[in-house]
UniProtKB/TrEMBL annotation:
ATP binds at residues 35-37, 230, 270-272. PANTHER family: GLUTAMATE--TRNA LIGASE, GLUTAMINE-TRNA LIGASE. SUPFAM superfamilies: Nucleotidylyl transferase (SSF52374), Ribosomal protein L25-like (SSF50715). This is Glutamine--tRNA ligase. The gene is glnS. Residues 341-441 form the Glutamyl/glutaminyl-tRNA synthetase class Ib anti-codon binding domain. L-glutamine binds at residues 67, 211. The lineage of its organism: Bacteria, Pseudomonadati, Bacteroidota, Flavobacteriia, Flavobacteriales. Belongs to the class-I aminoacyl-tRNA synthetase family. Residues 460-534 form the tRNA synthetases class I (E and Q) anti-codon binding domain. It is found in: Cytoplasm.
Length: 560
């Protein structure tokens, strides 16, 4: 077996086997079929990457099809967001399709099923239908309306379509087998009455197809060869095939449904229903809140398309569901941003540092590299002056030998600048340090090549010139939930497990090169983490979102 064969995942193996039997390469066509009832999340990103990745691998078209069969929950906002997300991830669809494009064809086929005795109108309440379904170990009971005449079924179905019947008065059901061991085959509902406006078809339809009826038939209409979905749809495969069989002709290529395991992410939820709750209850501000696992939220937080695609590729596709540690997603972000994000200086918990032997009023502009991982990124100029901000945690009045940052009587280097030595501290009436006084070695300038500049010191600090610093709002985002699996315990409300420190808003001081930073621009605040400019940011009020810290801080918390 060749190396290429060994590296195929099981879905690619299915395609390769099909190409050896009933499929030609030109028959291959895939689709990504979201329901426009919410924003896409990281789980959808894996499905997007799978389907569009197969399209790229086999040079086959991939449709973006919206399974828009539920006007109660679907909105144009969600359609627009989904298209934006797929494009942002770097994929192009062959055709933009909608299940609603096929409403007339689906209706016509339903009429044919009625005529052939494969569907009937049931006038029972939904509760009675559910009760008659039986259990996995007990067969269901036939509806008293199951043997209505074809003529009566056609007449009632047309009345349903024309809006002449009330919501809930009737449903159209497929006539299959009420004793089937697969409960989905026990006369599933195909249509329900909804007097609701659809985001595309407006008020032209009063009945709407159920997902199982519309989904497979849409695949068939579009000549999709392979319909890949998550494992929850495995029991639906038999029904999918039954419906397609009823509308296809002998010899026609039928779409093949196959399933892969959903990948759940730790410290979050990926149920659209639960994500909607977070939005509606005000736990987060919006679907694209940077704490949300939505693609739009991850984008706003500063994740790159490559980092998400790399994440999807690294976890692969499998046949068993499992939980992926969110730390792996964060690792993918760090790995990508490390290559591309310019290094800048920002101080988020400032204390003033005064270089007492530096001339008052003097300033100089120092050379700083933009990204040591990318030589082509070049350099920039940084202003340096007598008064600087440094991080409070970078100074201790007295420290042990393992503390390699600034303390009294010891030397450290200021990044891209000079070696300084702690001399004294100035405190307020409460004993808090308000200023650190230092001296500097004028001959120790970074990059000067002087013997003094080559002197080894153990610590290097980042800093910002007080005179030139830009104030910015910095939003420190963290994991949304404090528990690894917040929705695992059915006795607890998952909303009660929100991490109270999932967002902290502070004031930061930034180097002046960031004054012109544009929305979604990504940088590394040296020694702190990766950040990006939020969409609410303006030149008058800069706002930066933390994407990820430089290292996994949660590993420390858990004692790893």
């Amino acid at each position: 077996m060749s190396e290429a064969k060994r590296s195929l995942n099981f879905i690619e193996q299915i395609i390769e086997e099909d190409l050896k039997s009933e499929y030609k390469k030109e028959d291959l066509k895939f689709r990504f079929p979201p329901e426009p009832n919410g924003y896409l999340h990281i789980g959808h990103a894996s499905s997007i990457c799978l389907n569009f990745g197969l399209g790229e691998k086999y040079n086959a078209p991939v449709n973006l099809r919206f399974d828009d069969t539920n006007p109660i929950k679907e909105e144009q906002e969600f359609v627009d967001a989904i298209k934006r997300d797929v494009e942002w991830l770097g994929f192009k669809w062959a055709k933009e399709c909608y299940a609603s494009d096929y409403f007339q064809q689906l209706y016509d086929w339903a009429v044919e099923l009625i005529k052939e005795g494969h569907a009937y109108v049931d006038s029972q309440a939904s509760e009675a239908i559910a009760e008659q379904k039986g259990t996995p170990t007990e067969p269901g009971k036939e509806s008293p309306y199951r043997n209505r005449s074809v003529e009566e079924n056609l007449e009632l179905f047309e009345q349903m379509k024309n809006g002449q019947t009330a919501e809930g008065a009737h449903v159209l059901r497929a006539k299959i087998d009420m004793a089937s061991p697969n409960m989905l085959m026990r006369d599933p509902v195909m249509y329900r009455i909804l007097h609701k406006n659809h985001h595309r078809t407006k008020d032209s339809w009063k009945i709407y197809p159920m997902y199982d009826w519309a989904h497979g038939e849409s695949d068939f209409i579009e000549r999709v060869s392979h319909s890949f979905c998550t494992l929850e749809f495995l029991p639906h495969r038999e029904l999918y095939n039954w419906f397609v069989e009823k509308v296809s002709k002998p010899g026609e290529l039928k779409p093949k449904q196959r399933e892969f395991a959903r990948r759940n992410l730790s410290h979050t939820v990926v149920s659209k229903r639960k994500l909607l709750q977070l939005v509606e209850k005000g736990v987060v501000k919006s679907w694209d809140d940077p704490r949300m696992p939505t693609i739009s939220g991850l984008r706003r937080r500063g994740y790159t398309p490559d980092s998400i695609r790399n994440f999807a590729e690294s976890i692969g596709v499998g046949k068993r569901e499992n939980i992926i540690d969110v730390a792996h997603l964060e690792f993918c972000a760090r790995e990508d941003l490390n290559k591309t994000a310019p290094r800048v200086m920002a101080v988020l918990d400032p204390v003033k540092l005064v270089i007492t032997n530096y001339e008052e009023g003097k300033e100089e502009w120092l050379e700083a590299e933009n990204n040591p991982e990318d030589e082509s990124a070049g350099t920039r100029k940084l202003p340096f002056s007598r008064e600087l901000y440094v991080e409070q945690e970078d100074f201790k009045e007295s420290a042990n030998r393992k503390f390699f940052r600034l303390t009294l009587g010891k030397e450290v280097r200021l990044k891209n600048a000079y070696i300084i030595k702690g001399e004294e501290v100035i405190k307020d009436d409460n004993g808090n340090i308000v200023e650190i006084h230092c001296t500097y070695d004028p001959k120790s300038k970074s990059g000067s090549g002087s013997p003094e500049s080559l002197r080894k010191v153990k610590g290097t600090l980042h800093w910002v010139s007080v005179k030139h610093a830009i104030e910015a709002e910095v939003r420190l985002y963290d994991r949304l939930f404090s528990e690894e699996t917040p929705d695992a315990d059915k006795e607890k409300d998952f909303v009660d497990l929100i991490n109270p420190e999932s967002l902290q808003v502070i004031k930061g001081y930034l180097e002046p090169s960031l004054q012109e930073a544009g929305v979604e621009e990504k940088v590394q605040f040296q020694r702190i983490g990766y950040f990006c400019v939020d969409k609410e940011s303006t030149k008058q009020k800069l706002i930066f979102n933390r994407t990820v810290t430089l290292r996994d801080s949660w590993a420390k918390k858990s004692g790893d």
